[in-house]
């Protein structure tokens, strides 16, 4: 029993409120996943400044400021480092893959948990709202955010095991449920050269989707392919730099509700997480149908 929330803003006047709105939504999910949490924000000017790439990581043996200096020396640019314990966020006027390569060379024990031109991923163990406040989520701005509260069932309670799983550029996947055949799919992906960072079944789904996107498949088709390949029960929220998508399995036993207005699209595991959004009284509110992929684009 995990909790999912996501908010895709259509109205730019709401961008400064993204973090505050997402924090309020997350607060309603704490009872569904009290052991750890993760958040992803698209477009925050502090964590992901325009014209720079951002990399989020865990388990660095080197403090944020020192790591930023070392990465900057390798890349020949100024790198900013944010210590959002236990997450470190780096951003610089360089390609995301160049920053990640430098991090891996300098701190090979560090675990990359998010990267891209617009995306910041934050993860930690403990009460989700305590984490959100410690990270500064209420002050964040941007056009899109997702968050997840976790009640672990498939792997240990660790920051790296929390959602979202971000394994492709500007991509995130959060999951409520369980994939029953994920090990066979994982073994096939490993035979094809895919490397995994955890024992979490959700990472298998995220790697599967990221591979399809990397091969040129659009997000809707990638999620239809996931439906055809994965067994189990699940509700997924998948985001990219320009898309926000929801899909459920054929049985749809895991709760989900979507609300849509001219200003925003929001998804949550239960309605109470949507109840305080501006204009929700006039929203179109519905439960996503089994195996149907819902996609909104920026």
TrEMBL record:
Record GO terms (molecular function): glutamine-fructose-6-phosphate transaminase (isomerizing) activity
Every Glutamine amidotransferase type-2 domain range: 2-298
SUPFAM superfamilies: N-terminal nucleophile aminohydrolases (Ntn hydrolases) (SSF56235)
Catalytic reactions of this protein: D-fructose 6-phosphate + L-glutamine = D-glucosamine 6-phosphate + L-glutamate
Keyword annotations of the record: Glutamine amidotransferase, Transferase
CDD domains: GlxB
Alphabetized Pfam families for the sequence: GATase_6
Record PANTHER family: GLUCOSAMINE--FRUCTOSE-6-PHOSPHATE AMINOTRANSFERASE, ISOMERIZING (PTHR10937)
Identification of the protein by name: glutamine--fructose-6-phosphate transaminase (isomerizing)
